[in-house]
Amino acid sequence: MLMNTDATTIHANRIADLAGDAAMTYFRHLLEVDLKDDESPVTQADRGVELRVRAYLEQHFPDDGILGEEFGQSDLTCDHVWSIDPIDGTRSFLSGHPLFGFLLARLYKGEPTIGLIRMPALDETVIGVRGGSATLNGDKIRVSSQVSLDQAIVYVNEAEKIFARHPQTFGRLLSAGQTRRFGYDCYPHALVAMGHVDAVVDEDLQPYDYLPLVPVIEAAGGIITDWRGEPLTLSSGTSGVVTAATADLHAALLGLVGS
Length: 259
Known about the structure:
Strand order of the largest sheet: 4-3-5-6-7-8-9-10
Order of helices and strands: HEEHEEEHEEEEEEHHEHEHHEEH
Helix content: 25-40%
Radius of gyration: 17 Å
Strand content: 25-35%
Number of strands: 15
Number of helices: 9
Distance between the termini: 41 Å
C-alpha cells in the first residue's frame, strides 16, 4: 500500500537536512580515506552520513527495506525500499569541491516514486514526486523546452570512463550540442530539472546513484532512461544513463550512445 506522499516528502526533507548537516561537519576537514574493491574512495563522512540516515529510517519506517552504498541492502523484497547515497561525489568532497550531493529515493515495488538531491554546500534541495511536481527549496521547477541537439547545453559525466569503455561514443559526444561541459555526479542532472542544462549523458552509475534522479527528472517534465531507452528501476542493472529535457533531445542522444 502506498504511503501518503505528502507525509513521506516531509520525512525526505528532514532526512536531507540531517544528512546535509552531517556532511558539512566533515567537509574540508582532514579525513581518513579507504579504497573499495573498485578503488573508489570512501571516508568516515560517507559512513557517518549513511548511519544517521539509516537510524532515522529504522525509527520512522521500520517496515521498509534499505539499499545503501556503504552498508549494503536489507529487505529488498519489501514493497517500500529506500535508496541512499550518502556522499555522491566523494572525490569532489575530498578535494574541497562543493558539488557533492546526498541522494535519497523511496521505491514502491522496485520503482522510484520519490527522489531527492541535496547539495549541502550549496544549501539546495531538489525533490520530485512521481505524478506530482519537482521543487528546488520549495519552489516549483521545470525542464527547458529545448528540442534541438545542435542548440542544446549538454553535460558529459564521467568522460574519462566513457572514453575508456566506449571510445566511438565518446567521439560522437564531443560534437554533441551547442555547448558541452564535462562533469561528475548528480548536480548536472539537477540542473536539467531546473531548466539550466538540457541533457546529461552519464556512465558507471549504480542503483543508488540513478534511482533518486528518476522522480526528480520526470516530475520536472524531463526524460531519464538507460542508454537503451529502458526505464530505470531497482532491477535495471545498468550503468549508463541519458537525461534530457524533451523527447526529441532524448531520442537524439540515444542515437549517439546506442550507435
